[in-house]
Specification:
Layout (H helix, E strand, L loop, with lengths): L10 H16 L3 H5 L1 H23 L3 H22 L1
Helix pairs in contact: 1-3, 3-4
């Protein structure tokens, strides 16, 4: 098994990045684009997912990485709730 040396190699980070791009695309048109508070919040939440995966990976240990993954998971829930 190979060791992951960059956060960019995590499938979860790649998927979160694709999600962020999709959120930006969807929130840039129609009624969504005019609901400024929701648009901005869902964008921040999606960015939080990729950012926390990256930041946690760059920290100095597994315990901190797990903490940041937990925060990223919470942001996933926030995005899901806002999409509903």
């Amino acid at each position: 098994m190979s060791k992951i040396e960059r956060f960019e190699d995590f499938d979860a980070w790649k998927l979160a990045r694709r999600l962020t791009h999709a959120i930006y695309d969807v929130s840039a048109v129609g009624e969504f684009s005019r609901d400024f508070a929701l648009r901005d919040q869902i964008r921040r939440a999606s960015i939080s997912i990729v950012s926390n995966i990256a930041e946690g990976f760059e920290r100095d240990g597994d315990k901190e990485f797990l903490q940041f993954l937990s925060i990223a998971k919470g942001s996933c829930g926030e995005v899901r709730a806002q999409l509903i």
